[in-house]
Design goal:
With about 200 residues, this protein is mainly alpha-helical. About 60% of the residues lie in helices and about 10% in strands. It contains six helices and three strands; from the N terminus they run H-H-E-H-H-H-E-E-H. It has a three-stranded antiparallel β-sheet with strand order 1-3-2, covered by helices on one side. It holds the Pfam family Ribosomal_L17. GO terms for molecular function: structural constituent of ribosome.
Length: about 200
Protein backbone atom coordinates (compact mmCIF):
# COMPACT_ATOMS: atom_id res chain seq x y z
CA UNK A 1 0.00 0.00 0.00
CA UNK A 2 1.54 3.32 -1.01
CA UNK A 3 1.45 6.61 0.89
CA UNK A 4 -1.57 8.02 -0.98
CA UNK A 5 -3.76 5.06 0.00
CA UNK A 6 -2.75 5.35 3.65
CA UNK A 7 -3.73 9.04 3.74
CA UNK A 8 -7.28 8.08 2.66
CA UNK A 9 -7.65 5.87 5.71
CA UNK A 10 -6.81 8.67 8.15
CA UNK A 11 -9.61 10.69 9.66
CA UNK A 12 -10.05 14.20 8.30
CA UNK A 13 -9.35 16.28 11.41
CA UNK A 14 -9.93 20.01 11.62
CA UNK A 15 -6.43 20.69 12.98
CA UNK A 16 -3.18 19.89 11.27
CA UNK A 17 -1.15 17.22 13.01
CA UNK A 18 2.51 16.98 12.14
CA UNK A 19 4.75 14.15 13.23
CA UNK A 20 6.65 15.67 16.15
CA UNK A 21 9.35 14.15 18.27
CA UNK A 22 8.06 14.56 21.80
CA UNK A 23 10.00 13.82 24.91
CA UNK A 24 7.20 12.21 26.91
CA UNK A 25 9.05 9.71 29.02
CA UNK A 26 7.20 7.77 31.65
CA UNK A 27 8.57 5.48 34.35
CA UNK A 28 5.90 2.90 33.52
CA UNK A 29 6.85 2.86 29.84
CA UNK A 30 4.47 3.22 26.89
CA UNK A 31 1.50 1.93 28.90
CA UNK A 32 1.97 4.66 31.51
CA UNK A 33 2.31 7.29 28.80
CA UNK A 34 -0.89 6.11 27.15
CA UNK A 35 -2.69 6.08 30.50
CA UNK A 36 -1.59 9.68 31.07
CA UNK A 37 -3.01 10.67 27.68
CA UNK A 38 -6.27 8.84 28.45
CA UNK A 39 -6.53 10.75 31.74
CA UNK A 40 -5.91 14.02 29.87
CA UNK A 41 -8.62 13.33 27.25
CA UNK A 42 -11.04 12.29 30.01
CA UNK A 43 -10.32 15.45 32.01
CA UNK A 44 -10.77 17.60 28.89
CA UNK A 45 -14.20 16.17 28.14
CA UNK A 46 -15.21 16.34 31.80
CA UNK A 47 -14.06 19.87 32.71
CA UNK A 48 -13.92 21.35 29.16
CA UNK A 49 -10.86 23.45 30.10
CA UNK A 50 -7.63 22.15 31.59
CA UNK A 51 -4.16 23.57 32.20
CA UNK A 52 -1.18 21.30 31.65
CA UNK A 53 2.22 21.05 30.01
CA UNK A 54 2.40 21.96 26.35
CA UNK A 55 3.70 18.63 24.97
CA UNK A 56 1.00 16.54 26.59
CA UNK A 57 -1.72 19.04 25.66
CA UNK A 58 -0.56 19.09 22.05
CA UNK A 59 -0.70 15.31 21.75
CA UNK A 60 -3.94 14.85 23.71
CA UNK A 61 -5.60 17.47 21.52
CA UNK A 62 -5.25 15.25 18.46
CA UNK A 63 -6.84 12.29 20.23
CA UNK A 64 -9.72 14.41 21.54
CA UNK A 65 -10.34 15.80 18.05
CA UNK A 66 -10.32 12.27 16.62
CA UNK A 67 -12.76 11.05 19.26
CA UNK A 68 -15.22 13.90 18.71
CA UNK A 69 -14.85 13.71 14.94
CA UNK A 70 -15.66 9.99 14.86
CA UNK A 71 -18.56 10.48 17.28
CA UNK A 72 -20.06 13.11 14.95
CA UNK A 73 -19.41 11.10 11.79
CA UNK A 74 -20.61 7.66 12.89
CA UNK A 75 -22.86 8.22 15.91
CA UNK A 76 -23.42 6.05 18.95
CA UNK A 77 -24.61 2.98 17.01
CA UNK A 78 -21.19 2.39 15.42
CA UNK A 79 -19.30 -0.36 17.26
CA UNK A 80 -15.78 0.90 16.51
CA UNK A 81 -16.67 4.42 17.65
CA UNK A 82 -18.15 3.12 20.89
CA UNK A 83 -15.01 1.05 21.51
CA UNK A 84 -12.88 4.14 20.85
CA UNK A 85 -14.95 6.19 23.30
CA UNK A 86 -14.82 3.36 25.85
CA UNK A 87 -11.02 3.23 25.55
CA UNK A 88 -10.29 6.98 25.75
CA UNK A 89 -12.85 7.92 28.42
CA UNK A 90 -11.98 6.45 31.79
CA UNK A 91 -15.20 7.75 33.37
CA UNK A 92 -17.98 5.96 31.54
CA UNK A 93 -20.67 8.60 32.18
CA UNK A 94 -18.66 10.87 29.85
CA UNK A 95 -19.64 8.63 26.92
CA UNK A 96 -23.20 9.96 27.33
CA UNK A 97 -21.87 13.52 27.50
CA UNK A 98 -19.89 12.92 24.31
CA UNK A 99 -22.90 11.79 22.28
CA UNK A 100 -25.70 13.81 23.92
CA UNK A 101 -23.97 17.15 24.63
CA UNK A 102 -20.81 17.52 22.56
CA UNK A 103 -21.96 15.98 19.28
CA UNK A 104 -24.99 18.35 18.96
CA UNK A 105 -22.73 21.29 19.89
CA UNK A 106 -20.05 20.51 17.31
CA UNK A 107 -21.92 18.84 14.43
CA UNK A 108 -22.28 22.03 12.36
CA UNK A 109 -18.85 23.45 13.19
CA UNK A 110 -16.35 24.03 10.39
CA UNK A 111 -13.37 24.74 12.69
CA UNK A 112 -11.52 22.64 15.24
CA UNK A 113 -13.39 21.46 18.30
CA UNK A 114 -10.60 22.43 20.69
CA UNK A 115 -8.50 25.51 21.34
CA UNK A 116 -5.01 25.63 22.79
CA UNK A 117 -3.35 28.68 24.32
CA UNK A 118 0.14 29.15 25.67
CA UNK A 119 0.08 29.79 29.41
CA UNK A 120 2.67 31.65 31.49
CA UNK A 121 5.26 29.46 33.14
CA UNK A 122 5.93 29.22 36.84
CA UNK A 123 8.72 31.50 37.97
CA UNK A 124 11.03 30.78 39.66
CA UNK A 125 11.29 27.15 38.82
CA UNK A 126 12.09 24.79 35.99
CA UNK A 127 11.23 25.96 32.52
CA UNK A 128 8.46 23.87 31.04
CA UNK A 129 6.10 25.28 28.46
CA UNK A 130 2.55 25.28 29.82
CA UNK A 131 -0.72 25.60 27.96
CA UNK A 132 -4.47 25.74 28.37
CA UNK A 133 -6.52 23.24 26.38
CA UNK A 134 -10.26 23.78 26.09
CA UNK A 135 -13.32 22.70 24.15
CA UNK A 136 -15.04 25.38 22.11
CA UNK A 137 -18.33 26.60 23.51
CA UNK A 138 -17.41 25.87 27.12
CA UNK A 139 -19.28 27.72 29.89
CA UNK A 140 -16.19 29.53 31.21
CA UNK A 141 -15.23 33.14 30.47
CA UNK A 142 -13.02 33.62 27.45
CA UNK A 143 -9.27 33.73 27.97
CA UNK A 144 -8.88 36.36 25.24
CA UNK A 145 -10.50 39.72 26.09
CA UNK A 146 -13.19 40.88 23.69
CA UNK A 147 -12.58 44.45 22.53
CA UNK A 148 -15.29 44.50 19.87
CA UNK A 149 -18.12 45.89 22.01
CA UNK A 150 -16.35 48.53 24.06
CA UNK A 151 -16.94 51.44 21.66
CA UNK A 152 -20.10 52.35 23.56
CA UNK A 153 -18.38 52.71 26.93
CA UNK A 154 -18.67 56.25 28.27
CA UNK A 155 -14.95 56.94 28.51
CA UNK A 156 -14.41 55.74 24.92
CA UNK A 157 -17.20 58.03 23.65
CA UNK A 158 -15.69 60.98 25.51
CA UNK A 159 -12.22 60.22 24.18
CA UNK A 160 -13.56 59.99 20.61
CA UNK A 161 -15.28 63.37 20.93
CA UNK A 162 -12.15 64.96 22.43
CA UNK A 163 -10.12 63.53 19.55
CA UNK A 164 -12.57 65.00 17.01
CA UNK A 165 -12.43 68.44 18.69
CA UNK A 166 -8.64 68.36 18.69
CA UNK A 167 -8.60 67.49 14.97
CA UNK A 168 -11.08 70.31 14.21
CA UNK A 169 -8.88 72.84 16.03
CA UNK A 170 -5.76 71.66 14.20
CA UNK A 171 -7.52 71.79 10.81
CA UNK A 172 -8.77 75.31 11.61
CA UNK A 173 -5.21 76.40 12.46
CA UNK A 174 -3.88 74.93 9.22
CA UNK A 175 -6.68 76.60 7.23
CA UNK A 176 -5.91 80.01 8.85
CA UNK A 177 -2.19 79.62 8.07
CA UNK A 178 -2.98 78.77 4.44
CA UNK A 179 -5.29 81.81 4.16
CA UNK A 180 -2.61 84.06 5.62
CA UNK A 181 0.01 82.67 3.25
CA UNK A 182 -2.25 83.08 0.22
CA UNK A 183 -3.07 86.65 1.30
CA UNK A 184 0.66 87.39 1.68
CA UNK A 185 1.35 85.85 -1.73
CA UNK A 186 -1.35 87.98 -3.43
CA UNK A 187 -0.15 91.17 -1.71
CA UNK A 188 3.47 90.41 -2.70
CA UNK A 189 2.31 89.67 -6.23
CA UNK A 190 0.48 93.01 -6.48
CA UNK A 191 3.55 94.84 -5.05
CA UNK A 192 5.84 93.30 -7.65
CA UNK A 193 3.39 94.26 -10.41
CA UNK A 194 3.31 97.86 -9.25
CA UNK A 195 7.11 97.97 -9.00
CA UNK A 196 7.51 96.63 -12.55
CA UNK A 197 5.01 99.20 -13.82
CA UNK A 198 6.92 102.05 -12.09
CA UNK A 199 10.23 100.97 -13.59
CA UNK A 200 8.80 100.88 -17.11
Amino acid sequence: MNQADVSKLMSQLRISIQAKKRNLKNPKGPEGRLLKLRKTVTALLKHERIELYYNRADEARGYAELLISNAIRYGDRHIATMELADFWLLEKQLVHKLFKVLVPRFENMSVSYTRMYKAPRDYPGMYYKKSVLELRGNPYPSLIPDYSHNRTFLHNILLDEARKDYKREKFAEIANKLKAQSADDTSKGSETKSQTQETT
